[in-house]
Write a structure and sequence with these properties.
- The protein is an alpha+beta fold and 289 residues long.
- Helices cover 18% and strands 33% of the residues.
- It is built from 3 helices and 15 strands.
- Strands 1, 3, 4, 6, 11, 12, 13 and 15 form an 8-stranded antiparallel β-sheet that branches.
- The longest helix has 25 residues, at 264-288.
- It is globular and about 50 Å long.
- It starts with a helix and ends with a helix.
Amino acid sequence: QQVHGKKLGVSKLLALSALATVAIAGIGQTTRAALVASDNAGNSTYSSGWSNGSNSLNSGFGSWSLTATGPNAGFFIGSSTDNDNGNLLPAGDAADINTPDNSTGNAWGMYANSGSLATATRDFTGGDLGVGQSFSLAFDNGNIQTGSSDTLSLLDSSGSTTLFQFGFAGGMSDYFCTDAGSTAADTGVGFTYFGLDTVFTLTTASTYSFTITPIDTAISAKTITGTINDSIAGFQAVDDNAGSGSGSNFYINSVAVSAVPIPATLGLVLAGGLGLAVMRLNNRRRLKA
């Protein structure tokens, strides 16, 4: 009986431990959150170029959908320093948003002029962006003529509705942000040729924080907050007729989706349950000894 009791106790403990592990690992799955993912233009998939349907991942992001509207728009792999327009890299900047972060690195590039439009769209896989998850993207515009723009948009599941947008419009002084509560709101972050790192975090089902970190440290980083009115299923970068010449090229790079964070209360509950199971098993063994 004693031996049988030990085996039974251990099996119960192992089962509880396995259940806790599954519960932790499955948080994102039960909420159908977007899968963790990371991709950049330095991956070997893009060594021959950036093309419609390309994808270096088995999961996390869907394949790229690249659309050129008009005869003077297109997509390529190149150095994001090409749109610096002769400006010297600021101290601490190795190569704008390139991967690898050096003079021979690359980013995803697009161009559009003479009334043309270049649109790059990609879906999340596994589900929509979950509460607590972050989506990050490196953003590097060049010159933008008045009335035109370079933008990053977060889209709903239809792929046709913009829930959040960040970008720069020609003729403005600062980058702008549009969401459910504002249109083209001034972010307070001034124009830069050297790129920015952006991180969008879903803080509740309808609220977010968005952090903008210019690579040029002379420009202060900024975090803004706001609201959205639907679930986020993918993203889109658009060069809307920014202008001709390499100085007007638009580059993006280093896209990523983070894991769903484990709520602290759930971790405490699971840890407490395991601790109680161990204590009861030990007490049972002492009584039978």
